């Protein structure tokens, strides 16, 4: 009889422990879900680009004689643990200048509004930004960066080394002065789960520049989203896996494209091509 009683007590304890473990696991999942619900994505217009020589965005004569209008979006991601700005658009000196065609004539560029005004329209301020990261440091992504000198600049080590080296000097694709005030630097090598909960992940995808990267987001309603930087510049580039002739390292770009598409297949993420005009209104609706 005593043995039966002990067995009954033991069985009750085991069941109780299992229930407590299950409740604790459910609680953890609910907490993670709550954290993911809190993330917010804001999409902004960083200017417009008319590619007068579209063939730069391919090799050979793929787009010879063609022109194409491109967007230049930037983004702010609000998270309970901090706020990240991803890219900053074209130089702010363009505001009020209308269309400007720099020397060489490959592009005609314009910017309608400042970054401060656009942030204020969303109830945000320059001082609210804790982290700044660029998909890469081409001038059309770093144009308003110096406003955020108090933010932590998250950058691939390879990109930072290139930015501080001699080979960037005189290269018209870069404007180092536009991010010269960013001195609070966090160099990374590879991927970074910024808030350590899987909702905001910077992923290394080199090739377009030495330290090109993309941004993976887990949005509460839209689900997985990737801000693709300049992995592609417009829809056809992605459909045909076309690599621009001006990329820093074309073979490395091709390898990154393979990794990128494998990651998209794995996550079932919605890809936002940042220079694709058709994707700008789509990104603005994502929540």
Automatic annotation (TrEMBL):
Which Pfam family is an annotated match for this chain, by its short name? Lactamase_B
Q: Indicate what this protein is called per its UniProt record.
A: N-acyl homoserine lactonase family protein
Q: Which keywords accompany this UniProt record? A: Hydrolase, Metal-binding, Zinc
Q: Which residues form the Metallo-beta-lactamase domain?
A: 71-275
* Family in the record: Belongs to the metallo-beta-lactamase superfamily.
This protein's cofactor list reads: Zn(2+)
């Amino acid at each position: 009889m005593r043995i039966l009683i002990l067995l009954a007590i033991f069985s009750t304890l085991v069941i109780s422990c299992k229930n407590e473990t299950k409740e604790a696991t459910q609680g953890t999942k609910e907490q993670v879900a709550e954290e993911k619900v809190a993330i917010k994505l804001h999409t902004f217009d960083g200017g417009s680009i008319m590619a007068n020589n579209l063939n730069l965005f391919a090799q050979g004569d793929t787009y010879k004689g063609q022109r194409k209008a491109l967007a230049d979006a930037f983004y702010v991601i609000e998270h309970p643990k901090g706020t990240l700005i991803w890219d900053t658009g074209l130089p702010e000196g363009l505001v009020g200048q209308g269309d400007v065609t720099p020397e060489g004539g490959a592009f005609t560029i314009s910017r309608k509004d400042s970054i401060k005004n656009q942030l204020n329209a969303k109830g945000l301020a320059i001082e609210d930004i804790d982290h700044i990261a660029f998909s890469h440091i081409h001038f059309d992504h770093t144009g308003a960066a110096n406003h955020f000198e108090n933010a932590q600049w998250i950058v691939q080590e390879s990109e930072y080394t290139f930015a501080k080296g001699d080979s960037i000097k005189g290269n018209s694709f870069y404007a180092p002065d536009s991010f010269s005030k960013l001195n609070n630097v966090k160099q990374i090598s590879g991927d970074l789960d910024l808030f350590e909960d899987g909702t905001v992940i910077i992923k290394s995808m080199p090739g377009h520049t030495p330290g090109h990267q993309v941004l993976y987001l887990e949005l509460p309603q839209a689900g997985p989203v990737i801000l693709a930087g300049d992995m592609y510049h417009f829809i056809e580039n992605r459909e045909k896996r076309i690599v621009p002739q001006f990329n820093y390292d074309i073979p490395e770009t091709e390898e990154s494209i393979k990794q990128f598409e494998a990651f998209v297949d794995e996550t079932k993420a919605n890809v936002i091509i940042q220079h694709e005009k058709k994707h700008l209104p789509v990104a603005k609706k994502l929540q």
